[in-house]
Amino acid sequence: MPSALRHLLFIMAPLVVVLAVLPGVYQNHLLLFNFVIFLILAQGVNIIYGFTGYLPFGYVGFFGAGAYGFAIMVMHLQAPAVVAVVVAGLVGVALGLLLTPLLRLSGAYFAIANLAASLAVLHLVANPALESITKGPYGVSLTGTFNPNSAYIAALVVLALTLAGVVYLKNSSFGLALQAVREDSVSAAMSGVSVVKMRVIAWLASALVAGLAGGIYAWYVSVFYPDNVFSGDFSIFAIVFALFGGVATITGPIVGVIILYGIYNVIGFTTPQYFQLIYGLLIMGLVLFLPAGLVSLATRRGWHVP
Amino acid sequence: MLTYALVAGVLFGLYFSLVGIGLNLVFGVMRIVNLAHGDILMLGAFIALGVVTLAGIDPLFAVPLAFIVFLIVGLLLYWVLVPRLQGSVNPEMLSIILFFGLSQVIEAITTIFAGTSERSIQSRLLGTVFTTIQVKWFGGKPGRGGPIQIFGQSFPAPWVIAAGTSLIAIGLVYLYLYRTRLGTLTRAVMSRRDEALATGIDVDRVSAAAFGVGLGLAAVAGVFAPFMFGSVTPAFGADATVTSFAIVVLGSLGNPLGTALGGVVYGVCYMLVQTYLSSWADLLPYVLLILILLLRPSGLLGRQVRVA
Asked: What ipTM was assigned to the predicted interfaces of this complex?
């Protein structure tokens, strides 16, 4: 059996099936939905950070842009939800295209510029001067399309597609080329890899994923404010979840989301500041002692982790 | 109105230079992105609050206190965090995440002890030491500590005091970098870390000193934050970090004195936008930051172009 098929069968399929069955037995559907959203976002970060080395510190910019793309389609064009979600993905891609010049920057410069870009989009959307289009800081209410069950299914579909994308990256020469670019772009270019094109494709794929997730999030919650969907927590959580598990793997981000978001739900809601403390210490410990994530515990022993 | 915007811009700009200069020193010397910079500012503001509420004296006394406390904190923190970080595969990237974790820890601890309410200090308390001295030594009546007149416009006294302190602090940083031995070594490490190491400079000692001074300066800037921004909360740090970055990149990363220029340019732009296009003022730092990074990544005063 080729390894791509094996990964699809033994990682993606069970995860999606379990998440599809769980709403029948577990009552807290919002929690499950959030898990799916973070699984998608963590894999989106994995695509761009894990495979190309660009740290998207303003990743939430695409998510929020997707949510508002969805809202504008529904509010102004009365589009059906599924169409609006597709448009949300395209809005993410469009923002990604707009921000491609940022890929010229490297290291910390890229991360900071990306953060600034996401905040710029937030302040643009939340600007009272644009109230007629985005409802400014007063938030949008999309009761017409409210349908959590369909939104949950849509989220699972996007999760499956995203995981399939990551499986492809992990098993194809394209993914290998991306990792070569990450390690040493000059050498990769010398061996015939089209560096710029590869980076842009990964960047746009990552933006598409976040845009779709944002659109579905808007569909599910249906009432939100700019500060909700542009909250820096989305970027940070997605990055930390992906890193905690281990990037450039399929299972790493999944493990990271399940463990860390699980902890968050146990203690985060009642005492957010204690969660923040534990979370901060965990991040510091991770960087200092386990910079390659949980999966490195296995890879150090020579075990192969997909 | 234009005069007001320009003068207020310069006053704010000088203060913003002080806000950014510590961040720039740390990045320039260690190539470490200190995302906890804004949180150090926040802690500096809390030191000022403590000085006012516990001792009941002029918050200006918090300036040396904040500097010394965070100089020591910086030295300790350096030895705990940085050598391990520098040994990893990609220190520049990981530093972003590491210091983000630190900023979360600081924010959480401050929230646990101080709550999330907004704290402010009465602005007339700042600078009372001057009026006291004036009364004691030269006689005369205690002034009202009212606004200060510049070019026929009146500005709140704390703005002028903060700008003055910032000028002094930037002058001291200049003396440190260009007139002391440690400063020369610091500049050597800044321009080429590996060569500095090869010539026998104790890079760790120099970096630790720069880290301490950087944090100290951030805390000093924080002392004035309640006056310049109206109030502070434990969550104030994150915004302050992004603004500091805009200023530092505007000046040029790795050149602490460029930050002074960057701060003034930023302050004047901010005040002009605030005056004429107020609803778009929030966008300014981010758009400016992106434009500068894309068009002139080396900053206004940068000498060499960074290799992207």
From this structure: 0.78
